[in-house]
């Protein structure tokens, strides 16, 4: 289901804890009030779902932390409203403390049935008859692998047939990275409090969240809107504001001139997809610098782009002696895309490095342009103009020396780290693409589907970002908008299984706002 986003900013577990602390200590709002507001918000979601569910008990599976305390508030309010509700507590009541202990005691005095130290068999028995399950086992503070009773409870919840409402985050999902900590609850709906947590929008955790609802719990706007919160979720309104402007009286020069340095034998499609992606995204003039023997093929594939045949190597990739001609071709343009289908020929790689160093224009570096800087990403820190890098995890690994697995384990940290290190905007492709700026500002993209897992889709994206850069968009904004509309086109194009890059191109005219 689509997320119901009412706040753009996302928070890490540490940032959320600090906001809790400031709310309680600096603003004077007791933690018990925050817990009450959180529980009331989750109760409202449960009530909405129960309207369409068959009769039966609501079962709250609660841990011993504040997440469990929120669950006791839900149980109390549902019980007070006449609902059949019971709590499966994974510990003893007398082991609960603070606000969680207060709410557990209150629920018990109100008559809410509570079973202490519930094991797997007992949980299974209760859940077998449940019409709705509330996951209040673990909150955002968990970072290690889930073990013991909590893991058994997660397995029991997932084995049950009833829909699950997760409190703040599905138990077992890492709040910052979206990693699965051994096992995680598969929720129908997740109610996240004050701000959504970053891990809710990072895979694999995103697939465990179901519908995401962000519920205010009384925190001050000064905290939830703070500029110190640097992680953002891209919304449709955000993406629209990031596109370069259009005017009724503009001509093709006003719309931006883009040079694409791309192509080699066997990979003319990469150059063509990049060019057509740029043209479909508003570029006024697109030039393609390609190996001279491939020029005729590209003229047939890119009828609206202008090809520039260049000197080539014996392997039919761009040769180093093409440097001066490409620099000359770059003089009248506004931005450059370097790398799609360029090949990993040593001479072509050296050409890519020389072009990056000598072209003083905004530049997107993708694919083999990135491979030319494998192990030497710091060379890009010396570029005289702004740069957008668009690696997939494998290319990111070659740039940084980390493994692809390490990068995937914390995609935001990987993108932010490289961006800060070399002063480039880094767009780390993949499910929930991350776009990071050198100052730490980061955007997580919510659009797209598995249809993008096909060769050539990234070339279309490079062309789109190139068009936005050539049209005058700032690099970060160009990257964020490119990722958003690229994913949106994939969602509207065709069946993900059947998708080809050309389908994304065909869908682009239907996803952009009119102006």
User: How many discrete domains?
Assistant: 2
Structure summary, number of beta strands: 19
Helix content: 25-40%
Residue stretches low in confidence (pLDDT < 50, at least 5 long) are 1-7
For the biggest sheet, the summary is: 12 strands, mixed
Backbone shape: elongated
CATH class of the largest domain: Alpha Beta
Whole-number mean pLDDT: 95
| Rg of Cα set | 26 Å
Provide the spatial order of strands within the biggest beta sheet. Answer: 8-1-10-19-18-17-16-15-14-11-12-13
State the fourth-level CATH superfamily of the largest domain.
Ribokinase
Named CATH topology of the largest domain: UDP-N-acetylmuramoyl-L-alanine:D-glutamate ligase
As a percent range, the share of strand residues is 5-15%
The SS-based structural class is alpha/beta
Return the CATH architecture of the largest domain.
3-Layer(aba) Sandwich
Total of helices: 19
The CA-CA distance between the termini, in Å, is: 29 Å
